[in-house]
Design brief:
Length: 323
């Protein structure tokens, strides 16, 4: 695979398929409706896991570029789609308890997605325990936490969550986290749902304790949205465009671009990364309007979760609950 970093299984598959024809162990399908494109990637074997660098499991990617337009009706459509896709992975009954975990640092805007989603979740576990006879039968026990990050708490995030899981004993853990993409247009507009859990900080190259079914002992579903992209990834894509354009022109210097075009992908990646990382390390880029994007997408995700975690409630009912 290319050394370009991405947390999205869909992008990993795109990168791999550009360089290889052998897709054994990797299945993919896409559909589009109402401006929302859904891509489902399934890693079905260890071979597929090695090829994509993603654990065996299901990865559902919802692309909704219209989020940037801020249209309420479209955002509600995305929330409903998130709910529908989540329900295909959840196996809940009337008495199930769900723990929602918002990963990230609330002091850093691109990394504050998880805590912001948690702040908009219908938390009901305490109500069902204290006054169960006064609660609508459609409401399920949901609790939520934003455990912070290692640099703030001094405690490994996975350890905090494991301790809560051992005490609360939820049937499902939903983990929300910010991701890294290889395309700037996917920042804040693409949602990935995976039943393989998550590695906190992996988008920025930080190795932390995995948060998944193996480490927690309960079904764990991760929901992530790209909020950053690496500078060398942008430069690498720009170089590809420049090379392709020069191939079609017979201008001076075309031989130089031809020689670049004949280089291996790994060589080009290494060359660009070496130039951009001198002095500063690999820069991480986020849009200037990231604060608005985080606010909008956190609301969209939280409303999708509220619809999925409770039986047949409406957006209006969930909004009344929170206000």
């Amino acid at each position: 695979m290319s050394s370009i970093r991405t947390d999205l299984a869909m992008e990993a598959r795109e990168l791999y398929s550009q360089q290889n024809k052998d897709m054994d162990g990797i299945e993919s399908e896409s559909e589009e409706e109402g401006g929302i494109e859904v891509t489902r990637v399934r890693v079905t074997s260890l071979k597929g896991e090695v090829k994509l660098g993603k654990p065996i499991g299901n990865y559902i990617t919802i692309e909704a570029g219209g989020i940037k337009e801020g249209e309420p009706e479209f955002e509600e459509s995305v929330s409903h789609r998130i709910s529908e896709e989540l329900k295909t992975l959840l196996e809940l009954n009337r008495d199930s308890t769900v723990l929602v975990v918002g990963l990230g640092n609330w002091n850093i805007t691109p990394d504050s997605l998880g805590p912001k989603v948690v702040g908009k979740i219908m938390v009901t576990r305490h109500i069902l325990e204290l006054i169960p006879d006064q609660v609508d039968e459609r409401v399920r026990a949901v609790c939520a936490v934003a455990p912070g990050v290692l640099g703030i708490t001094g405690i490994e995030t996975g350890e905090v969550i494991k301790g809560i899981v051992d005490m609360v004993k939820p049937d499902v853990v939903l983990v929300i986290d910010a991701l890294a993409s290889r395309k700037t247009q996917r920042i804040g507009t693409t949602i990935q749902i995976a039943d393989t859990g998550v590695n906190p900080g992996s988008g920025l190259g930080n190795k932390r304790m995995s948060i998944n079914e193996e480490s927690l002992g309960v079904k764990t579903i991760a929901i992530g949205v790209p909020m950053v992209v690496y500078a060398h990834t942008i430069a690498r894509d720009s170089l590809d465009i420049l090379i392709n354009e020069q191939f079609n022109k017979g201008e001076a210097g075309a031989e130089f671009y031809k020689s670049l075009g004949e280089m291996q992908e790994e060589q080009l990646d290494a060359m660009v990364k070496d130039v951009l990382t001198q002095g500063f390390g690999d820069l991480v880029v986020t849009p200037k309007e990231v604060d608005m994007l985080v606010e909008d997408v956190s609301r969209i995700i939280s409303e999708g979760l509220n619809l999925a975690l409770h039986d047949n409630i409406t957006l209006e009912e969930s909004r009344r609950f929170l206000h």
